[in-house]
Write a structure and sequence with these properties.
alpha+beta; 4 domains; seven-stranded mixed sheet; single chain; three-stranded antiparallel sheet; 18 helices; 34% helix; 646 residues
């Protein structure tokens, strides 16, 4: 029988990240920190950017190394740094450039051993260590562990002190259950009574009261019920509200562990179409309790922008992950300790442990050889101290969240081929190219970009939708096709266009031929009612495919799945709705905005569980939930199933 569960905490080691810095290097850093100026110090430890970071997850060891060229058309794509010792001057595959001391770029050099030319590629390098830390955070906030109490079944000095009712039931009397469905045992030797925790299926009331309000609470939560209104309806206080929210979040994680994680382990997909986008919202600027507002005047003007990254399946609309780019676990004390230990304030960003955070280091007093002014140090220190008066935790660079997000999907879902659909978002694109480098190199992964004119009105979009239908029917009649099915006609229409249309082209430089992306999108023949005509571009190499194969792929390209879920987030979760315009018309109001991104993560995960398993939608002739369409379950669930495990 399953044991009662709890949320994972900071002390639980689910992902064990191996520190890529040895003790001897730490000693060297402390010595060089005092003797070298920051630029020379950073240059000395730059090679760390090419070293892999190793971590263990669920008993399996993984190694990540993502600082390389991420242009799919470049011959350096996915290749690690290498120094050509046999060539005069010993050139390297990559060099570090950039005008800023800390914001550097990784730039491709020409390979002197191969007659191939680079594309003058450059990319912002990431800290491999920090990516591993972000993976660790996302795994931790989405994990539940068994409650393992330390039972004392015997009095001191009992002759049978080593026996337990689980291994030696004959040594104990069973005294039934108490009101909380906890079983009671009595030792036959020392007569000590002990209550044992109930199993998960037998109790939903452990450490909580008002269990009967949970289904209503859940429906209010995903039905745009605000915190205050929910408290009024259910007659509970704010602290009870957030206690129930955390309890429901844990229950959803337990449900997903059973009906999502386990099925994905045994299933294999031939092809998965990922649709990824990110949503931004602003936190309410509320100073923490115990702080004097007058001391921090002007803070209320700052808007704390937060991102939500969502990836859904384009065909079934199943939402694989929804992650808030915010670390509610890390503290400024942790940041200060890491800065003092690893001397991150003098390192380039791609060598820092905490480069993923909005503050990647804690300001330190300038050393004797430091080029930083004392005034700059005090200014930075004052800024980070002001930030500490807001909600606990720190925002995460969304590029790191995107990378960890894709890495977890890739290791969670077994698929032979991958397709990604996004808008023109560089941070998502770069993360996908880093994580799926091998698949892109083998032509097992491709990336499609959807662009549309968002200034169109609804009436114009509907007119374009009708024009597209009429045009396809007229074209089909002219070509002699008997079918009136729009998707079939659109596929034939695309195939004809793709015989003379290319997404990439061949160029010649110094007598060398190479392919580059052409930036030549094609207009999708099926306009949508809400956006009218839109274009599709492919950022990876499709030159080896036949036009008919490319047409079939483009017919699957749309971003309806992720847009549908993000719109649901806006409309169903009160604290994440769009801002309201004030009566003055010059400002936006965030009166219901979320105060703590940790709660936003809870709410979005609960909504994702409800959306995937409880909310049927009609696509085609059948009305099924996304989980049913994906094939991981065969029934529709409701909140009672999630809460009570019926």
């Amino acid at each position: 029988m399953a044991k009662l569960k709890r949320l994972a905490t900071k002390e639980d080691v689910i992902v064990d990240v191996c520190t890529p810095v040895s003790d001897s290097e730490i000693e060297e850093r402390h010595k060089d920190y005092e003797e070298l100026e920051p630029r020379k110090f950073a240059f000395r430890y730059n090679p760390m950017m090419y070293l892999p970071t190793t971590f263990t997850l669920y008993g399996q060891t993984h190694s990540i190394r993502y600082n390389y060229c991420i242009n799919p058309f470049c011959h350096n794509f996915g290749k690690e740094q290498k120094k050509f010792e046999s060539i005069k001057g010993k050139p390297s595959r990559y060099k570090i450039g950039g005008s800023s001391d800390y914001q550097k770029k990784l730039i491709c050099n020409d390979n002197p051993l191969v007659e191939e030319s680079t594309h003058n590629c450059s990319v912002n390098p990431f800290s491999n260590w920090s990516i591993a830390e972000e993976i660790k955070r996302l795994v931790q906030i989405g994990s539940v562990l068994d409650i393992e109490p330390d039972y004392q079944f015997h009095k001191e000095g009992c002759a049978d002190s080593s026996s337990t009712p689980f291994k030696d039931p004959k040594n104990f009397y069973s005294h039934g259950e108490i009101k909380a469905k906890s079983h009671k045992y009595k030792c036959k030797t020392c007569n000590k009574y002990t209550n044992v925790l109930p199993t998960r299926e037998r109790s939903t009331t452990y450490h909580q009261k008002k269990n009967e309000i949970l289904p209503t609470f859940a429906r209010l939560l995903v039905g745009k019920g605000s915190v205050k209104r929910t408290c009024e309806i259910l007659q509970i206080g704010n602290s009870t509200y957030y206690h129930k929210l955390k309890w429901l979040y844990r229950r959803c994680l337990e449900f997903l562990e059973r009906y999502e994680t386990k099925p994905f382990k045994r299933m294999e997909f031939n092809e998965v179409w990922l649709n990824t986008d990110k949503m931004n919202y602003y936190l309410n600027n509320v100073i923490n309790k115990g702080q004097k507002a007058k001391k921090y005047s002007g803070l209320e003007e700052r808007q704390l922008q937060t991102y939500l990254v969502v990836t859904a399946d384009a065909s079934s609309r199943y939402v694989f992950r929804s992650d808030i780019a915010y670390d509610s676990i890390v503290t400024l004390d942790d940041l200060e300790r890491d800065t003092i230990l690893y001397k991150d304030d003098h390192l380039n960003t791609f060598c820092r442990k905490n480069d993923r955070l909005e503050w990647s280091y804690y300001p330190q007093e300038p050393t004797d050889n430091d080029t930083e002014d004392v005034g700059v140090y005090k200014y930075e220190l004052n800024k980070i101290k002001k930030r500490s008066q807001y909600v606990d935790g720190l925002h995460v660079n969304v590029g790191y969240t995107n990378t960890a997000h894709f890495w977890l999907i890739k290791n969670h879902v077994n698929a032979k081929e991958w397709r990604l659909i996004t808008d023109d978002d560089k941070s998502i694109r770069n993360a996908f190219y880093r994580v799926f480098t091998n698949e892109i190199s083998l032509s097992d992964a491709h990336h499609f970009i959807v662009r549309s004119d968002k200034t169109k009105g609804r009436e114009q979009c509907e007119m374009e939708f009708e024009d597209a239908k009429n045009h396809l029917h007229e074209w089909g009649d002219a070509k002699g096709y008997k079918t009136k099915n729009l998707r079939t006609l659109a596929a034939h229409y695309l195939e004809e266009i793709l015989h003379r249309h290319e997404f990439s082209e061949e160029k010649v430089k110094d007598g060398l031929r190479y392919r580059v992306h052409k930036d030549n999108p094609v207009e999708h023949p099926l306009a949508s009612k809400d956006r009218g005509f839109y274009t599709v571009d492919c950022m990876t190499d499709l030159s080896s495919y036949e036009p008919s194969d490319i047409a079939k792929m483009i017919m699957n390209v749309n971003d309806h799945s992720v847009n549908s879920f993000i719109q649901l987030v806006r409309r169903r979760i009160s604290s994440l709705e769009r801002p309201l315009t004030t009566a003055r018309g010059d400002k936006k109001s965030y009166i219901y905005a979320n105060l703590n991104p940790e709660y936003a993560q809870y709410m979005v995960t609960i909504l994702r569980t409800y959306y995937n398993f409880c909310k049927p939608m009609k696509l085609g002739s059948k009305k099924l939930t996304p989980a049913q369409r994906l094939g991981i379950v065969d029934k529709q669930f409701n909140f009672e199933d999630i809460i009570y495990f019926k």
